[in-house]
Write a structure and sequence with these properties.
- The structure holds two protein chains of two kinds.
- By secondary structure, chain A is of the alpha/beta class.
- Chain A contains nine helices and ten strands.
- Chain A has a domain of about 200 residues: Rossmann fold (3-Layer(aba) Sandwich).
- Helix content of chain A is about 30%, strand content about 20%.
- In chain A, the strands form two sheets. A six-stranded mixed beta sheet of chain A has the order 6-7-8-3-9-10, with helices on both faces. Chain A has a four-stranded antiparallel beta sheet with strand order 2-1-4-5, covered by helices on one side.
- In chain A, helix 5 crosses helix 6.
- Chain A is globular.
- Chain A starts with a helix and ends in a 22-residue tail after the last helix.
- The N terminus and C terminus of chain A are likely disordered.
- By secondary structure, chain B is mainly alpha-helical.
- Chain B folds into two domains: about 40 residues; about 220 residues, Orthogonal Bundle (MetI-like fold).
- In chain B, helix 3 packs across helix 11, helix 4 crosses helix 10 and helix 9 packs antiparallel against helix 11.
- The model of chain B has no long low-confidence stretch (mean pLDDT about 90).
- Classes of the chains: A alpha/beta, B mainly alpha.
- The interface between A and B is medium-sized, with 31 and 22 residues.
């Protein structure tokens, strides 16, 4: 099923960005990390942001989470401007941000605890979500006692327990080994079909983006701008086998070209003859 | 080499530690005995056996228990004053850049002053008796607790803060549910060191400013040339200090920050 079909079931989680710029740093060291970026993401869509290191993709995600302020433009979620962090916009990072002093269960129960939900109920909710990510048997373990992949699953669970409108993921599987990574990608798609939330996923791995996304937003090196928005046409549910299809290779080559053609000096080949939509910068 | 290793392996790590510790103490006691016999002076150095007999006498007449109680009460009094001020202050300073700028230079200036140098002021302000001892032990315990708690508070990771805020934590909840627990391992380290310092300082304070306690007992015995009593006082201090610090260590691993020592 595609993002558009999902939209019929839930209408929360719409992102609108219009001419968004983000400046980072202070004084003489300030620089524009994101420059004049516009796009729209539909509720329930899974969109990947790719680009070279330092292209501002993580900054943009941080702005969506509310940890970083925009310096210009309009950044709205469901019609309201993003102002500070909120459990509706959960974020999962590459590096572990689990609280080492809490068990997996109590880490997941943190969000409900902040909402004032009682101990019994919030632990029940936590166990339910841990079951969803396949960690029912590890609820009592401390983060240090879990593998990297398991820790990332707890991170995802800790965000999902808040039933967020947006699930923001900042290279969440970047630190995992290849095999675990593929498993996590499949798990994410599986969870996503069940919880139907908007996912914005930052990665620099083109394969990962093509495997996961409805659409891919390709960004340029600093200052980050949108080079192209690519619609990924593969039917869902997807299996890892799609990586071997010619279409996949075609799209991958196109992404590589985009990322290597660093500036917008040379006109980029359009993919329309192959039937792929190449909406430019939303 | 291999034969020795296998001998130690056969009694296990804990057994080895206890065995070697006991041997070390036995060697020390033998040297002490030999030394005291060759010196042959009960004033310069009484043998361990005499000290042990003196222990018996002081325990029997209840005076040792009284002195120990007086000292322990002072140690914990000063320690409580120190920890209840040092921990909140340290976390507050770790949290607020302005307060940090205001207070840290002052701390840096006061910290090098040894507790013993505070004794004259303490006696002038509070007279002889219990209050100066509380004051001195509190001063001694304050800085290790403060510095460790501050380091703990300052080691707070941005990722934890961002994650907590994304999950809906208010500033107060951040302090209580993120900053405090993440600083806790270092706070406990500070408490352990602070207790050791307080225990050492109480003896110093009692040597000068008190009318009871182990320090006072050592001082009086010195004036009476009762060296065996002095040694009783010293060894009791050593034993109790080691036990207290050991207990905090166990408490730390089992109760306060078990997640820091996963098994």
């Amino acid at each position: 099923m595609s993002g558009r079909e999902r939209q019929a079931r839930t209408d929360l989680g719409r992102i609108e960005a219009e001419h968004v710029s983000i400046r980072l740093g202070y004084g003489a060291e300030a620089f524009e990390a994101v420059q004049d970026v516009s796009f729209a993401i539909e509720p329930g869509e899974l969109v990947c942001l790719i680009g070279p290191s330092g292209c501002g993709k993580s900054t943009l995600l941080g702005a969506l989470a509310g940890h970083i302020a925009t310096s210009a433009g309009k950044l709205h979620v469901d019609g309201a401007p993003v102002a500070g962090p909120h459990p509706d916009r959960g974020i999962v990072f590459q590096h572990h941000t689990l609280f080492p002093w809490k068990s997996a269960r109590d880490n997941v129960a943190f969000g409900p605890k902040m909402r004032g939900i009682g101990k019994v109920e919030r632990r029940r909710q936590a166990d339910e979500i841990l079951e969803l990510v396949g960690l029912a048997d590890f609820a009592g373990r401390y983060p240090k006692q879990l593998s990297g992949g398991m820790q990332q699953r707890v991170e995802i669970a800790r965000v999902l327990v808040n039933k967020p409108r947006l699930l923001l993921m900042d290279e969440p599987f970047g630190a995992l080994d290849a095999l675990t990574r593929i498993k996590m990608q499949e798990l994410l798609l599986d969870i996503w079909t069940r919880v139907r939330t908007t996912v914005v996923f930052v990665t620099h791995d083109i394969d990962e983006a093509l495997f996961l996304a409805d659409r891919i937003i390709v960004m340029s090196p600093r200052p980050g701008r949108i080079l192209e928005v690519i619609r990924v046409p593969f039917a869902r549910p997807r299996a890892t086998e799609i990586v071997a299809t010619p279409e996949f290779g075609q799209l991958k080559r196109h992404c590589l070209e985009l990322l290597h053609v660093r500036s917008d000096s040379a006109p980029l080949t359009r993919l329309s003859p192959l039937g792929f939509d190449t909406g430019q910068g939303g | 080499m291999s034969a020795r290793r296998s001998l130690l392996d056969s009694i296990g790590a804990t057994g080895t530690a206890i065995f070697l510790g006991a041997v070390g103490i036995a060697i020390f006691l033998s040297i002490w005995t030999i030394a005291s016999h060759s010196l042959d002076s009960a004033v310069l150095l009484p043998p361990p056996l005499t000290v042990l007999q003196t222990y018996g006498g002081l325990i029997a007449d209840g005076s040792l228990a009284q002195d120990v109680r007086a000292s322990i009460v002072r140690v914990f009094g000063g320690f409580l004053i120190a920890s209840s001020t040092a921990v909140p202050l340290a976390l507050l300073l770790a949290y607020s850049r302005i307060l940090r700028g205001l207070v840290m230079p002052l701390i840096a200036l006061i910290r090098p002053i040894p507790p013993i140098a505070w004794i004259p002021l303490a006696i002038l302000w509070m007279g002889l008796g219990d209050p100066p001892s509380y004051f001195i032990t509190a001063i001694a315990a304050f800085f290790p607790i403060f510095l460790n708690a501050f380091a703990g508070g300052a080691s707070l990771q941005d990722e934890h803060v961002n994650a907590a805020r994304s999950l809906g934590a208010t500033p107060f909840a951040l302090l209580k549910t993120v900053m405090l627990p993440s600083a806790l391992p270092m706070i406990v380290t500070g408490l352990r060191i602070g207790l050791g310092q307080a225990w050492m300082a109480v003896v110093t304070a009692e040597l000068v400013a008190a009318q009871s306690g182990l320090g006072y007992m050592i001082q009086i015995s010195r004036l009476n040339l009762e060296t065996a009593r002095v040694l009783v006082g010293m060894t009791v201090i050593g034993l109790l200090g080691a036990v207290m610090i050991g207990l905090i260590g166990v408490f730390e691993r089992r109760v306060i920050v078990p997640w820091h020592y996963p098994r």
